[in-house]
Each structure stands twice: as structure tokens, then as C-alpha cells.
Design goal:
By secondary structure, this protein is of the alpha+beta class. The chain folds into two domains: 1-33, no CATH class; 37-88, no CATH class. Helix content is 39%, strand content 11%. The chain has helices spanning 20-29, 59-66, 72-88; strands at residues 8-9, 16-17, 37-39, 44-46. 1% of the residues are buried. The structure holds zinc ion. Zinc ion binds at residues 10, 12-13, 15, 26-27, 30.
């Protein structure tokens, strides 16, 4: 007959271990990773490292997005101001 056996899962990599001690060692071995966020006037936007800096979700997109309101009317005004600035150059 089969028996019940408890395994301990590392919360970071999900690997199973036979003891809490082994799982704890595994968990502590994972490096702490930094994550870059654009912190703006209106919100925080995560910067995707996989995307080109000028592309969607990239560095420059995130920096701009963080300074834009989520309120549609406010956002429309802000975008109009940005476009006017571009046209005046
Ligand atoms: Zn692990």
C-alpha cells in the first residue's frame, strides 16, 4: 500500500526537498534580484528588461507612462501638450 510522505517545497524555485532544512538552504541560495520601476508623478510602472528602451514596456515608455494620468481627460490634455512640444521643435 502506498504511504503518505511529506516533501518541502522551495517557495522560489518550487523544487521539492525531503527536509525543511534542505528546502531552507535552497530558498536561501536564490539571489535577490532587483527590479526597475519608473516612479512618476502619477504612478509606478514596471520597466521590462526584455523590451527595447524605446518600445512598448521599455525604459522610455515606462518613464513617460509613469508621468501620465490614468484619468482619460487629464491624459488627453497631457498627451496634447507633449505633442505640441514635439511640433514646436
Ligand atoms: Zn529553490
Amino acid at each position: 500500500m502506498a504511504i503518505v510522505r511529506t516533501y518541502y517545497t522551495c517557495p522560489t524555485c518550487q523544487r521539492m526537498h525531503e527536509t525543511v532544512k534542505e528546502a531552507t538552504i535552497c530558498r536561501n541560495r536564490h539571489p535577490i534580484r532587483g527590479q526597475n520601476w519608473a516612479v512618476g508623478k502619477y504612478k509606478m510602472v514596471r520597466i521590462s528588461e526584455r523590451c527595447h528602451p524605446d518600445g512598448m514596456y521599455g525604459l522610455n515608455w515606462a518613464l513617460r507612462e509613469a508621468d501620465l494620468s490614468d484619468n482619460i481627460e487629464e491624459r488627453r490634455k497631457q498627451l496634447a501638450e507633449i505633442n505640441n512640444g514635439v511640433n514646436q521643435r
